[in-house]
Amino acid sequence: STMLLARFPRVSLAHLPTPLEHLPRLTAHLGGPNIYVKRDDCTGLGTGGNKTRKLEFLVADALEQKADVIITQGAVQSNHARQTAAAACKVGMTCELIFEKRVTDADEAYKTSGNVLLDRVYGANIREVEKGTDMNAAMEVLADELRADGKTPYIVPGGGSNPIGALGYVDCAFECVAQANREGIPIDYIVHATGSAGTQAGLAVGLKAMNANIALLGIGVNAPKDEQEEKVWVLAQEVAEFIGAPGCVTREDIVA
């Protein structure tokens, strides 16, 4: 099944495989099924996080297109932006971040510490726009400005969620199943957070592409159920086609 991904360019940014850790006390406390956590906080790039898997494929695509600047967007304290800034720094590209001021009553620490501090350490250029701005349009405008300046920009969508980025979670599905087989852990369900849709779309396609028979449940972080499922479903179909396994995912496989 990993052959499905072998033809896509990829740069090594993450420490993989991430651990699959048993939580015996939480399992006992809840009195239900055995709970394991897939430690994707341990991906290792710029303090870690799940977007690093996506960036392995996105940054490789950017390098293949001879880009020298990566543009992305998010909230001021975006984990995705921090990992993108770290990835750009690691491969020697400039990073431009556009932040939407989504938190209206933010104090000074929110604006300057944590991820913002790390973004600056990684050398990213930061600009802020008002809440409600069309972020994709803002990235396109910046890309045009950079091109006029002789640069070759590459836009990474918010959350790294497009068919290329979602390959990181197709690969993660393969990794989870291989790990479970190796360690003798029968996985019935994978439960995860779903927002920009790339993680869920990638996992859904990866699991179905290898007939893993593992159910997937996304816990929505912002959109209502119907809206989130539709968003994931649209992307999942694109991802399935992209890896050469069209039709492997059905609408019923997408639950959020």
From TrEMBL:
Its cofactor is pyridoxal 5'-phosphate. Residues 11-221 form the Tryptophan synthase beta chain-like PALP domain. InterPro entries: ACCD_DCysDesulf, TrpB-like_PALP, TrpB-like_PALP_sf. One of its GO terms (molecular function) is D-cysteine desulfhydrase activity. SUPFAM superfamilies: Tryptophan synthase beta subunit-like PLP-dependent enzymes. Keywords: Lyase, Pyridoxal phosphate. The keyword Electron transport does not apply. Belongs to the ACC deaminase/D-cysteine desulfhydrase family. This is Tryptophan synthase beta chain-like PALP domain-containing protein. It comes from marine metagenome.
